[in-house]
Amino acid sequence: MTRNTFTDIDLNEARRLQAVADTVLVDVRETWEFEEFNEGGINIPLAEIRERRVDLAPFKSIIVICTNGVRSKVAAMDYCRVPEWLDKQIFHVKGGIIESE
Fold this sequence. Notes:
The protein contains three helices and five strands; from the N terminus they run E-H-E-H-E-E-H-E. By secondary structure, it is α/β, with parallel strands linked by helices. The longest helix has 11 residues, at 70-80. The termini are far apart. 27% of the residues are buried.
């Protein structure tokens, strides 16, 4: 079975890529964390990533982020397993949001 792979990027690269058309930043932290502080994009808590895949279908590139890179890596690996998404680019912000502080 062919499987997609994700690319580790840093926060500055994520900010740059976010400006590219057909790219979405997905913050997989809890809603309260997203409301407290975020890098933009959309908030899909990790527990909801499978039910909300439809929200990401229109995009060619998906950037996944969380606080420190742990939850976002789980989400990135999950997104890589979606058979219909082999043509999508999946990016993972290694080190998460706190990497930048």
